[in-house]
């Protein structure tokens, strides 16, 4: 055995070859798809052991972001970076999370969302430079993903953010990954070897997409952007969303559809404001002040006494 082979790092689980699939290209489509589907189910099962650390990460992130200053920063390369971009893009329309409080750090830049830039994942300096330019601070939360957990770009992003005092969350699919060791909160998703060795858009990608959805949703719940199972921070920017917002106001207050529509208009489309206006018989500025006293959390605002100071 040579010195170089003795010092070689272990192969990440996501790069291993699963002999079960050695004849995959010879199987009929029905058999192959059923087997691939089983792999997707296994990917979802891999989330279960990660839920406790995911809960702690969500609580810590929400506490950091509750100050109203920090950003939710996503970092990754390749498939992981594209999944991060998807999660980031869904926060504003779903939870009215401000665009200014979301930042994406992806290897190869945004152009890599449609055109792969595989070599960019080794450029740790690019990650450091982008975060330094973005002015990462202790108010921020950074979520970095890498299936193998060895991607230099993602690791450098975590190290840079953590050194600046930001809260860091690392998500990887290989036990013992450097990315997990570098982060404040290490989310391990042990999805194992892929049906096509190294094709982490499959099991690993499915698990990463699901865990991002769970994490960001729970952060938004903790920040008061969900009430009674409804997206009460959603902005009615089209006909479908306007109808949904009106139904929410009517359901939450028991008012008529007409009153819901009228009040929502007076509230400039703000669902929580409209709900308080109806249930507390107050105007929009008073409702906004009431929400402000309770960090925007509708349940807490509703619990306050009916006498609202002018």
From TrEMBL:
CDD domains noted in UniProt: SIS_Etherase
Pfam family, one: GKRP_SIS_N
Domain SIS: start-end pairs: 61-225
An MF annotation (GO) of this entry: carbohydrate derivative binding
Protein origin, superkingdom: Bacteria
Keywords for this protein: Carbohydrate metabolism, Lyase
InterPro entries listed in its UniProt record: Etherase_MurQ, MURQ/GCKR, SIS_dom, SIS_dom_sf
GO BP term (any one): peptidoglycan turnover
Protein name, per record: N-acetylmuramic acid 6-phosphate etherase
């Amino acid at each position: 055995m040579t010195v170089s082979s003795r010092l070689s790092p272990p192969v990440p689980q996501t790069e291993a070859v699963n002999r079960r699939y050695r004849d995959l290209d010879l199987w009929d489509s029905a058999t192959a798809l059923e087997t691939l589907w089983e792999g997707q189910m296994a990917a979802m099962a891999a989330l279960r052991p990660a839920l406790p650390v995911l809960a702690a990460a969500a609580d810590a992130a929400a506490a950091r972001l509750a100050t109203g200053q920090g950003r939710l920063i996503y970092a990754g390369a390749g498939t992981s970076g594209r999944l991060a971009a998807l999660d980031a893009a869904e926060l504003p329309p779903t939870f009215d999370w401000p665009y200014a409080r979301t930042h994406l750090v992806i290897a190869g830049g945004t152009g890599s969302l449609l055109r792969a830039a595989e070599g960019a994942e080794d450029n740790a300096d690019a990650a450091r430079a982008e975060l330094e330019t973005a002015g990462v601070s202790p108010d921020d939360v950074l979520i970095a993903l890498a299936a193998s957990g060895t991607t230099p770009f993602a690791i450098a992003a975590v190290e840079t953010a953590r050194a600046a005092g930001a809260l860091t969350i690392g998500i990887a699919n290989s036990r013992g990954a450097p990315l997990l060791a570098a982060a404040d909160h290490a989310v391990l998703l042990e999805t194992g070897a892929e049906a096509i060795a190294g094709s982490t858009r499959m099991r690993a990608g499915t698990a990463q997409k699901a865990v991002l959805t769970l994490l960001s949703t729970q952060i938004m719940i903790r920040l008061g952007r969900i009430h009674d199972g409804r997206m009460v921070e959603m902005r009615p920017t089209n006909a479908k969303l306007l109808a949904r917002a009106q139904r929410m106001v009517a359901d939450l207050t028991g008012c008529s559809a007409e009153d819901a529509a009228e009040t929502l208009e007076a509230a400039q489309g703000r669902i929580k404001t409209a709900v308080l206006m109806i249930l507390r018989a107050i105007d929009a500025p008073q409702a906004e002040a009431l929400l402000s006293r309770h960090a925007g959390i509708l349940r807490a605002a509703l619990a306050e006494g009916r006498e609202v100071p002018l």
